[in-house]
């Protein structure tokens, strides 16, 4: 029964006659001279087991995908965009002091979002709420100033009224 062996040069399987096992043989494919051993021996002998490894490892490049750092993190603080926007709108529409917290909260939350602490999903809402808060606050101030001036004028005109 012929023995199977493997050429260390080209790794092709070769059939060698029983008589040649343990002797120097020449690979017909690549011409490498080597000592023919039975395949079982090759497989168990650590010195020659290498032959059975598949192609010399092709310098496996370790592809660590550079994941962008801005991948959603689970530990974001939830944003308050909806709340801030609601405060801004209410503050603007009914000219309430609600516009002031909308502005302040929007300001601090935007900082957190940019620092990566807060969920960036809410950036648009927060930004919008903040702007409405600013407008609402300014309108409210103008309203107060105008109202105050009006009151002062009324009182003054009453005061100077001949009577
Ligand atoms: Zn060979």
Q: Helical amount among residues, as a percent range?
A: 40-55%
Associated small molecules: zinc ion
Look at the structure and give the mean pLDDT. Answer: 78
Q: Separation of termini?
A: 138 Å
Number of helices: 5
Low-confidence stretches: 47-60
Query: Rg to the nearest angstrom?
Result: 42 Å
Content-based structural category: mainly alpha
Strand order of the largest sheet: 1-2
Q: List the helices and strands in order.
A: EEEEHHHHH
General form: rod-shaped
Instruction: Kindly give the count of domains.
Output: 2
What percent strand? 5-15%
Number of strands: 4
Biggest sheet features: 2 strands, antiparallel
Indicate the topology.
Blueprint: E1 3-6, E2 13-16, E3 24-26, E4 33-35, H1 39-44, H2 46-49, H3 81-93, H4 99-114, H5 123-160
Antiparallel strand pairs: 1-2, 3-4
The protein binds zinc ion.
């Amino acid at each position: 029964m012929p023995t199977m062996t493997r050429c260390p040069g080209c790794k092709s399987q070769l059939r060698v006659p029983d008589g040649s096992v343990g002797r120097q043989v020449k690979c017909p494919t690549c011409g490498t001279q080597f000592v023919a051993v039975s395949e079982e021996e090759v497989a168990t002998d650590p010195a020659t087991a290498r032959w059975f490894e598949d192609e010399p490892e092709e310098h496996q490049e370790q592809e660590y995908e550079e994941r962008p750092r801005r991948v959603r993190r689970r530990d974001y603080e939830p944003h308050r965009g909806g709340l801030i926007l609601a405060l801004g709108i209410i503050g603007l529409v009914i000219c309430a002091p609600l516009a002031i917290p909308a502005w302040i909260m929007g300001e601090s939350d935007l900082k957190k979002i940019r620092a990566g602490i807060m969920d960036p999903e809410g950036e648009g809402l927060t930004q919008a709420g903040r702007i409405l808060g600013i407008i609402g606050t300014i309108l409210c101030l103008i309203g107060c100033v105008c109202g105050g001036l009006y009151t002062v004028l009324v009182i003054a005109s009453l005061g100077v009224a001949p009577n």
